[in-house]
């Protein structure tokens, strides 16, 4: 068995807390220690209340805690998941188990342990030795960390039915049925019974479908080649453990979070990032569960670091399943509405009771009629009507190939007042075409460019086996010339640098070839730029074209620092790409604008290109000017020194870069998005 280290003396306490980070969320987990309290009064209260107290224990965690007492040797734990003082999930009481001096428990599909020093930790492997595991080590780690699988706990139909019957809405329905039956309104009571059964049936169907979709969405198992004990063999991906070394093969799905330790591969990470552009991963780069491997070198291997729900995909799945922070809950708002009605109903019922008691002197009759008023104010058909409405909405969404795993959020979608769109592949087509290559001021066919420019087109990319970024595919295909060269080193594209560089050996010379955004290459090739470079580039950008510029220089040492290699480059030219607007983009934006849903574009492309596309699809009015901002002395300054008040008064359209956005204050952001 793998032993976890014990540091320090044992600490006696009744609670602990720790901060964790996952899927861009930092939250605090608070754990309180309890043990069952065999309180005689609680047992009597359950009996005397005819089970009503047990119902409240089922509905409210605070009432359930009355059956427990704080303890330093707990059998149960109260878990609170907090962020910025707000609950991210409903408080939960769970059982825990002892493992020596440690306390182990599972919360939201993640295994946790509390050390003897009262430290709360996730049960995961931290240190890796990059050596193949023995079969014994793999078996022990599987016992400790469990299977590499994401499987939602499946409730039986009877369990779901029992929970539905005990929900506050349905208990109230049963109460209404009894009240009206006691007053001989059998037909109305029968109708309430039919509505209740219909409501439970609809809810049961919804929950079964929802659970099935979630399980289907996140469950995945495949065959992988693992290296253990200096042998390689096929196993099921669910048998992988942290520390395993796995072969990465083309056309496969990654089932773990890990690190490339040999070779290289191209991955599609759209499931996690929404970005359709494939990404090249080389040695020491991270790979993630749920991503597709498009191509890989024959010797590509990866080290398994996280499995199951501990992966990034697992964090996303748990976020969908359990997170309820920053969301409007229709059910909670409905419950508030019913509480107000219930309060008014209680006042009317009590008033009616005393009035009827004076006139009839029949206490039983007065009580029943008072309760009838209470049930009339809260319509028995309300839950059924809500459930039927959701079913109609779900079927309409299905007809448009839209599937909802949380039907309760359908009502919330009516509150959406702003939608942000990516540009490439969303508003525009995902494929690009090369219009030509600009050398000085002339637009040329890439095959007619000078030799070194054609060499740059053929060498400066991250494609593996023809798979990768659509821009690079178009760049490679536009040039028909073939070259024989040898790669020496590659500096991958970095968003903050806006460029990539390769070092190749060609005709006995070491050449560093760099490609990047026009504004970055303008700085790197400053002394060799054509006279009209800036104006030429801006003209193409304003027309909505995408631009990539190239530069090179001869070097003597492949191990020079990157900043020296990329400094003082000789300008080669600029490749111009056409990225057409999708046929349905403009119609969609116009529809959203017509119902007062504000549309904005969020993209990493050049601001001038983005403004052109925004005008084409009506995100901004093509007949009105667009004000841009830039950072001067750490302050946001707009065109012609226009201030925020003028932007608000004149209703100017605004475009900001990432740096400008970071400097925009909250007041200005509210003005842009017209928040209430």
TrEMBL record:
PROSITE patterns associated with the record: ATPASE_E1_E2
GO terms classed as biological process: transmembrane transport
Main location: membrane
GO cellular component: membrane
UniProt keyword annotation of Cytoplasm present: no
Alphabetized UniProt keyword annotations: ATP-binding, Magnesium, Membrane, Metal-binding, Nucleotide-binding, Phosphoprotein, Translocase, Transmembrane, Transmembrane helix
Protein name: P-type ATPase A domain-containing protein
Localization per record: Membrane
Molecular functions (GO terms): ATP binding; ATP hydrolysis activity; ATPase-coupled monoatomic cation transmembrane transporter activity; metal ion binding; P-type transmembrane transporter activity
Catalyzed reaction equations: ATP + H2O = ADP + phosphate + H(+)
Family that this chain belongs to: Belongs to the cation transport ATPase (P-type) (TC 3.A.3) family. Type V subfamily.
Domain P-type ATPase A: start-end pairs: 222-318
Pfam families named in the record: E1-E2_ATPase, Hydrolase
Residue spans crossing the bilayer: 186-207, 337-355
Its membrane topology: Multi-pass membrane protein
InterPro entries with a match to the protein in the record: ATPase_P-typ_cyto_dom_N (IPR023299), ATPase_P-typ_P_site (IPR018303), ATPase_P-typ_TM_dom_sf (IPR023298), ATPase_P-typ_transduc_dom_A_sf (IPR008250), ATPase_P-type_domA (IPR059000), HAD-like_sf (IPR036412), HAD_sf (IPR023214), P-type_TPase_V (IPR006544)
């Amino acid at each position: 068995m793998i032993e976890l280290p014990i540091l320090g003396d044992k600490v006696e306490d009744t609670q602990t807390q720790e901060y964790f980070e996952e899927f861009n969320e930092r939250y605090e987990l608070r754990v309180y220690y309890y043990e069952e309290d065999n309180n005689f009064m609680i047992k009597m209260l359950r009996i005397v209340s005819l089970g009503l107290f047990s119902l409240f224990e089922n509905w409210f965690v605070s009432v359930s805690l009355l059956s427990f007492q704080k303890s330093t040797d707990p059998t149960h734990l109260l878990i609170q998941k907090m962020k910025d003082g707000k609950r991210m999930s409903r408080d939960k009481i769970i059982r825990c188990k002892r493992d020596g001096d440690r306390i182990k428990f599972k919360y939201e599909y993640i295994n946790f342990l509390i050390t003897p020093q009262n430290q709360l930790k996730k049960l995961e492997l931290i240190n890796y030795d990059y050596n193949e595991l023995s079969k014994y080590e793999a078996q022990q780690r599987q016992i400790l960390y469990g299977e590499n699988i994401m499987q939602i706990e499946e409730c039986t139909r009877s369990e779901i039915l029992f929970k539905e019957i005990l929900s506050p809405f349905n208990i109230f329905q049963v109460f209404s049925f009894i009240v009206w039956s006691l007053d001989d309104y059998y037909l109305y009571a029968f109708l309430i019974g039919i509505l209740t059964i219909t409501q439970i049936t609809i809810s049961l169907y919804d929950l079964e479908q929802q659970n099935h979709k979630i399980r289907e969405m996140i469950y995945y198992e495949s065959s992988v080649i693992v290296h253990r004990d200096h042998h390689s063999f096929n196993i099921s991906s669910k048998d992988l453990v942290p520390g395993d070394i796995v072969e990465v093969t083309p056309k496969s799905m990654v089932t773990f979070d890990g690190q490339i330790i040999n070779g290289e591969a191209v991955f599609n990470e759209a499931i996690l990032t929404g970005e359709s552009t494939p990404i090249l991963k080389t040695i020491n780069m991270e790979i993630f569960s749920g991503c597709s491997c498009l191509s890989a070198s024959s010797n590509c291997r990866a080290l398994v670091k996280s499995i199951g729900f501990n992966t990034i995909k697992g964090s996303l799945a748990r976020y969908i399943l359990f997170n309820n922070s920053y969301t409007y809950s229709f059910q909670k708002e409905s419950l508030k509405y019913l509480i107000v009605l219930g309060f008014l109903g209680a006042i009317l019922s009590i008033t009616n009771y005393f009035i009827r008691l004076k006139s009839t002197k029949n206490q039983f009759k007065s009580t029943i009629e008072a309760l009838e008023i209470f049930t009339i104010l809260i319509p028995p058909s309300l839950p059924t009507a809500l459930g039927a409405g959701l079913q109609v909405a779900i079927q309409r969404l299905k007809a448009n190939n839209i599937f909802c795993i949380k039907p309760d959020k359908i009502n919330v979608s009516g509150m959406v007042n702003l939608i942000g769109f990516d540009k490439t592949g969303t508003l525009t087509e995902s494929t690009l075409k090369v219009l030509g290559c600009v050398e000085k001021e002339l637009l040329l066919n890439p095959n007619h460019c000078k030799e070194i420019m054609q060499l740059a087109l053929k060498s400066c990319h991250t494609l593996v086996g023809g798979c990768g970024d659509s821009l690079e595919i178009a760049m490679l295909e536009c040039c028909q010339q073939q070259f024989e060269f040898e790669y020496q080193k590659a500096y991958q594209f970095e968003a903050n640098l806006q460029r990539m560089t390769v070092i190749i050996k060609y005709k006995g010379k070491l050449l560093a070839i760099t490609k990047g955004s026009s504004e970055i290459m303008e700085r790197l090739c400053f002394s060799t730029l054509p006279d009209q470079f800036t104006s030429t580039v801006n003209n193409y950008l304003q027309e909505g074209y995408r631009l990539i510029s190239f530069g090179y220089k001869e070097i003597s040492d492949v191990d020079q620092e990157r900043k020296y290699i990329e400094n003082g480059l000789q300008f080669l030219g600029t490749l111009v790409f056409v990225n057409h607007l999708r046929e349905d983009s403009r119609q969609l934006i116009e529809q959203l604008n017509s119902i007062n849903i504000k549309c904005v574009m969020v993209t990493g492309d050049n601001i001038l290109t983005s403004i052109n596309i925004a005008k084409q699809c009506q995100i901004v009015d093509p007949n009105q000017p667009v004000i841009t901002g830039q950072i001067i002395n750490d302050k946001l300054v707009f065109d012609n020194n226009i201030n925020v008040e003028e932007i608000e008064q004149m209703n100017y359209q605004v475009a900001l870069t990432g740096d400008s956005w970071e400097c925009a204050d909250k007041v200005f952001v509210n003005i842009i998005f017209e928040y209430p």
